[in-house]
Every structure is written in C-alpha cells, then in structure tokens.
Amino acid sequence: MSEKDSDHYQNQALTRLSPYESYVFDWLILEGAENDCTRWDDDSITQLSLDGLDIFLGCATTDDPNHVAEVAVLTECGAHWNAKGVWNRLSESLSVKPDGVWFDVTTSDRAHAWIVWSITGEELCGKDFDRMMQRFLEFARGVVEILNTTNWSD
Q1: Domain enclosing residue 60, as ranges
Q2: What is the pTM of this model?
Q3: Best exposed site among 2, 33, 103, 148 by fewest CB in 10 Å?
Q4: Which of 135, 91, 85 is nearest to 111 (CA)?
C-alpha cells in the first residue's frame, strides 16, 4: 500500500470516530498503541495493538444510555474449549474486576474471550480516566495471562 493510500485510510477512519471514541483512541496512541487502519473489518470498530494486546474501540453496545464508548481486548483461549469452561476458569482465578468491565466468550473452532469496558461519559470526562484505563489494561493483561497459561486438557 502506498503512503498516499495509507493516509487516505487513516484520515477516513479517524473522521468517523465519535468525540468519545476519539478521546479513548488518542489516549491509547499516547500510551504507545499502534493502529493499522487497513485491518479494520467493520467501519464501526477501530482495532489497535498495545504491548501484545489486540484492542478494539467502538460505540457502546449496552442498553445503558450513560455508556458512550467501549474498549475491548480479545484473546484466544484454547482449541475447542467451550464457553462454560472459560467462564469457570475466569471465575476461579479473578477476585475483583473493575466496575463496568464484563466478559463475552464466543466459540467456533477455538474459544475467544472479550474483556470489555463500557465507558460512561462521566468516567471519560473524569479526572480518574487515566487511572481507570491503566487499571482496565492491567486487568485485561491478567485475564489474557490466565487464559494463555491454563492447561485446557484438565
């Protein structure tokens, strides 16, 4: 892809972000996240990479009108593992999760876990947003570590 084409995709992608998503996007970029706009499969989702985490950013998917954006980390759990097994492993290993964070486990040929934070406008505009984002990413890294080190044959 030429530099001109890359700039075109980058500009097109950034103009479609809501102000809330732009704020989270900027935060992630400032933390060192890399974005490859040619990898975006869905116009409503932005994909980034930060320290080995696959991060997705988009509008809120909950029914709560206070949620203005979502940031999610996706991890592959293991071959042919079922969603219930992943849920059980996470509930055994995690004592506390940050407010607003939830999981979605999907299975096809492999199990995948989404670690999702539905962000409210108050959280986004609050003075603790930086700390909350750091805590979410730290928590997500912990979940990824648990799922990647689990012996799924047990």
Answers
A1: 3-149
A2: 0.78
A3: 2
A4: 85
